[in-house]
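Structure tokens please, single chain.
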Amino acid sequence: MKPGLTALLLAALLACTASAASAQSQPVSAPGEQVAEERQVLVMLHLPAPHFRPDSGYSGAYTDNTGHGARRRIAAELAQRHGLTLLSDWPMPVLGIDCYVMQAPPGVARQNVVAQLAADPRVEWAQPMASFNALDSGGVHDPLYATQPAAKFWHIAELHAHATGSRVQVAVIDSGVESDHPDLAGQVTQQENFVDGSPYAAEKHGTAVAGIIAAKAGNGIGIEGIAPGARLMALRACWEEADHGTRCNSFTLGKALNFALLHKAQVINMSLGGPSDILMKRLVDVALARGVTVVAAVDPQLPGGGFPAAYPGVIAAANDHAQASIPGLVVAPGLDIPTTVPGGRWALVNGTSFAAAHVTGMAALLAGLHPNVAVKRSDFWGGSNLAGGIDACATVLHAMPHAAGDCACACAPVLSAKANKTTE
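Here you go.
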């Protein structure tokens, strides 16, 4: 972004936020929490078929019942036998398991514990707790619309005459979202906290991602989301730490994915990355098998872009054409992006997290046009020569056969330029 434009944008942001007080309350992890997490393992116990178990009426919340009680007794016995501390558990009926978190004492090799647990016939599988990180770099037409890269490169105001992602359910698996932000009020239909028992709190990363995806259009303030007609599930599976960014783990992410699938999310956004993870792979497999679109941010520091971005079937998003060698990558705006932040404010953000949010918004537009058809990587048109990565006009118009030859954007030639169509 040119220095002059940056200065104008910052002035606009300050003007938009001058009357808003910063009311964000951020929980800070206790010292040593990450060290403790590095000693934790996940143990999966199989759920009997629904007609064989007394808790078959489970619909997403915990209930006291003999089935769960029996499995918890097995988990407690396993923990005692292996010298572990049983910390927490959660039912995941999407996979037919109960998931238990156990912690090894200091000095015990976690991989050995995992191998011993996995050898027990009562255990479906065991795995180390993995750590994931959000992928940001640290920050009438609505007033900031003109400063949005999606306004210039994607012509979103023109696209919204044809598609808004109306009623598409998008799960934002992230840190907390400020659902009463002036640009997000009414856009969040469900919010859940899968991190801890504290009250749900707004946090910067999740609020920023949510704004890019579905900020209200035409309300006279702030920005315009890529899919303002979409409805968000704000699923807090990550937490923000002072000076340490935004973190998540296998257990919190697994709980959020399970919820998203139980509640019929059509698109799932995960602006985060980390190591390969068995629990998350199996949940993503279920999502893809059900026709759910999964979008994840590329981590350029990890092989293949990290997990889940590198997983087959997941749409991987980045903000840098230099990363275009990653197979199946979608490039989208992710630098100097104005978006919502807690306290009823707006700010500039950078990172592949926010490129993923753009791609999720585009997927919601397509899902709104064809609700019963899964959005795939091959549905996105574009090329590495385009500043905005995706050719949003071509992508949406190609999904609207009746609009062929009646291009709403300044991109009429693109529909005939099939050579630019990306492939899986």
